[in-house]
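anyone seen this seq b4? input:
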Amino acid sequence: MRALWIWGQLTTQGRELRVYAERAITVAGEIRTRIGSGDALWSRVRFGVLDRVAVLWLPLSMALIDPTRA
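predicted toks r here
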């Protein structure tokens, strides 16, 4: 597995992955708008990430997905 983050900058693969993550967040918002409240769609999601990614990115990512649960 290649590194997606090197010394404060995203690698090419990291930038590409970021585009997909932003799309996923947009689609999640559209689903909430069209289908209804998040409570109807709530379930547990597990991410497999390296420790460093979890410490650095996960809190921000979760706050972006659902600011009320941050």
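The longest helix spans residues 12-35. The longest strand covers residues 5-6. kinda curious what u guys think
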